[in-house]
Amino acid sequence: MRWGDETGAAQAPRQKARFLAVDFFCGAGGTTRGLIDAGGYVIAGIDKDASCEATYSDPANNLNLTLDRRPPRFLHRDVFPRSDENPGGERKELMADLEYLIGRYRRWASRTPLLFAVCAPCQPFTKLSRQGMSEERKKRRARDANLLKEACRFIRKFKPEMVLSENVAGIDDPKYGGVWEQFRRDLERMGYATGSKVVCTSKFGIPQYRKRSILMGISRYMANPERFADLLGKELLVPESDPDAALISVQEAIGHLPPLQAGEVHPHLFNHRARGLSEVNRRRLAASKPGKSNAYMAMTEHGDLTLPCHQRVNEKFQDRCFGDVYTRMSPHQPSPTITTRCISISNGRFGHYDVSQLRAITVREAALLQSFPETYRFHPLDEMEPGARMVGNAVPPKLARFFASYLVNSLVPIRPGPRLLRAGGPASVTASDRR
Known about the structure:
about 425 residues; alpha/beta; Rossmann fold; seven-stranded mixed sheet; 14 helices; 7 strands; about 10% strand; globular
């Protein structure tokens, strides 16, 4: 079946989807995989980073299990409008793409609710210094801080019954311009009941300590009254944990994988390759104990191996700073937050807990700690940095699965009648739809 071939879709075996979904800022597909695992049908993922497409569109990673059993579409679009400052903006084209695709699937799967996942890139809301950034990169960061506002334009047009957003724990800090609270107020003005809370992923069966802000919205007249935290029907209850999920340790998550040494590549297991180590870093990691700080570096058999720059900072503040770098994870606890540089021991507590394995974790191990399935492949398979970046930026699939399920279970059933969106004919078809 070709995309855009309505006849082929109509003839495909149908398995009912619990909901339809569009994944904004989809990246490598962590949210999408969670939505599929929750029984949803993901119509499309949208991202302006074309380097994610091979991973996102790999059928081994994201294959819808309902309706036509096809992978989601990857729409390589920029959600901002075209302008002199942003000549690559494609808001108009993306609106047309979604009008066609959403209209088509809402006609086909009538009375199936629609969910918009809006998990914007978190870089504009992190603590990293802007010092040393190019002016162009600063402009991109400033523009990206408005991604939630841009997403509201699509929500206003297509009126999904559910909205799910995830971001860094500090996004609600006023120093970021109140974008999180503004997004929530915009949703409320559009008729959604909302709820927001900071949660830790370790409480959702994910083997990682990772604090994240969750914001949910449900069309107010369709929300189950039992999900409200107030009598006015405005505030949604947001779970702080999955009551059915156990705490999972690093060893439970990755201990079964074949051992490697620094610089080695497993011949058959995708993305299981370890970064090499310099001699001084070998000495550092060899002296490190699982779960301990890097205070060991001051008294190794090779002398003080603390970086000179760290020594100066430690002396200045009379304290040991940067205590997690060049250290090993604890085997009996969830991992620290997986970042885009998780394959390097110099960027955090990313040393393998097994002292016989002198190395940082691999992309495969990082993906498991993010709750990706072991079969999930990050492209290009023969490189490490792109995979680490995709894994570190991803929404943990188990987190997306839990909250998507919670949202759809919070809806009252959709009764027969006119849809919120009038499904019109195709306004635009992308290049692959025309094939």
